[in-house]
Task: inverse folding
């Protein structure tokens, strides 16, 4: 639910910019909005996958600490990915001519707010909804446990 809200946040921000400044909305802008949506979905998947991995790896940490660690561990990847994409989009903005102007503008707005929404909005909503380790990490079932292990019945 948190990822869906964060992804809708990106689309609403882009549409809000175009409505507020009364910029032309064309099919190329719609393509930019859909590209940003795909980009945001990917970023949300990466963040939540890191959170799931951190829940498995750091069993003693609380939920806010796990989410903080997951976000911190993805920051270098996020910065590199977004900076390289933004460099390409800015080259389209300045050198692409009038046909790519609003497409690149929509992508620029989406990339900038996509970072914000994936990191701050999605994770905060997940915490607000009360995500916990049991929601993301499946406990081993009885059939998966080793019958010869004396600690097989102990809590995982």
Result:
């Amino acid at each position: 639910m948190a990822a869906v809200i964060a992804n809708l946040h990106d689309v609403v921000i882009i549409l809000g910019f175009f409505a507020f400044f009364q910029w032309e909305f064309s099919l190329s802008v719609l393509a930019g909005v859909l590209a940003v949506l795909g980009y945001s979905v990917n970023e949300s998947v990466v963040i939540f996958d890191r959170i799931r991995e951190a829940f498995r790896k750091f069993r003693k940490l609380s939920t806010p600490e796990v989410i903080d660690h997951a976000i911190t561990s993805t920051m270098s990847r996020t910065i590199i990915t977004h900076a390289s994409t933004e460099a390409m989009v800015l080259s389209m903005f300045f050198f692409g001519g009038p046909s790519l102007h609003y497409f690149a503008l929509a992508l620029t707005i989406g990339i900038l707010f996509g970072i914000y929404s994936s990191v701050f909005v999605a994770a905060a909503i997940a915490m607000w909804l009360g995500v916990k380790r049991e929601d993301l990490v499946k406990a081993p079932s009885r059939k998966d446990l080793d019958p010869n292990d004396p600690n097989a019945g102990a809590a995982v």
Remarks:
- The chain has a mean pLDDT of 87.
- The two ends are 27 Å apart (CA to CA).
